[in-house]
Amino acid sequence: MKKPITLMVSLLMSASLVFAGCASTKQSAAPQNGQSESKEVNVYTARHYPGVDDAIYKAFTDKTGIKVNIIKASGEELVQRIKTEGSSSKADIYITSDAGNLYQAKEAGLLQPVNSPVLEKNIPANFIDKDKMWVGLTMRARVLVYAKDRVSKEELSTYEDLTNPKWQGKVLVRSSNNIYNQSMVASFIELNGEDKAKAWAKGLVANMARQPEGGDRDQAKAIAAGKGDVAIMNSYYLGQMLASKDPDEVKAAEKLGVFFPNQNTTGTHVNVSGAGVVKTAPNAANAVKLLEFLSEAESQKTFAEASTEYPVNPNVEPSALLKSWGTFKKQDINLSKLGENNKKAVQLLNEVGWK
Question: Apex CA 30: angle with CA 70 and CA 24, to 5°?
Fold first, then answer.
């Protein structure tokens, strides 16, 4: 009886080893680090240009076979959603405006580093997070917009000059609660130091035509209505007003000129709309492919023109409208600094009474 029992045990052990080997082989072939082999990518985006963006995403799908699923909301809502969903989130890419917002997503631990020679070739280094957690996809300039019937270009020069008594009661700008102004001041801190940045902000408050209210478009409309002479605003808002279906917006925008400040000193403040790959992305490889596609020349031209922004890819020319405004010198800093200096910027804005 011992021989059959010994043989049976041996067979059972062999079968067990074969099964374990199969299981091990199956496990090692499975996607690693949360990666998925599905042919899709999920984009959580605060960018809302459906017609144009849908066409770009379709072109990506046609080229790669990877389907693009879109979830739209504000940047804050998307960040909260990704946090709430946790490790089960389907988000692969997070797209939002302003390097300050991208920095906050990075600091919240929501993004992962991306090493892509394609992105590094197509996008200037100062528009890529220093830890490679996000990349810029379109660029905007924070320009001076002025009433063409009351102000000549020769009267304008720098952001600093807006603190000159000659502009008292003539400057319009939105609230300091807005990330665009916080990032602009953060850039001044980086370039000039906290003391000079604070002195500038204090001087600007003294020259404001009214207490800050509304968005950038509202500042432009107020200038056109004679409530001030010069406004600080993002360039793409004026472009969108000129292309608006609202005739009143077009009429207001046509009264305004664009000036790029600090051309003989530190350059005009610029920022980006950009994207990062979510840390828990189930389709991270597909996400990188999409970002690379969006950085290529053809996509860049369409993606930027839809929002009247500048392409970040230096090999792509801006739209005819932006070219008509002229070329300009940009601030020479890595945009990661806008996020790193944000707390200091907010503190000094509060201290000078910029509401």
Answer: 165
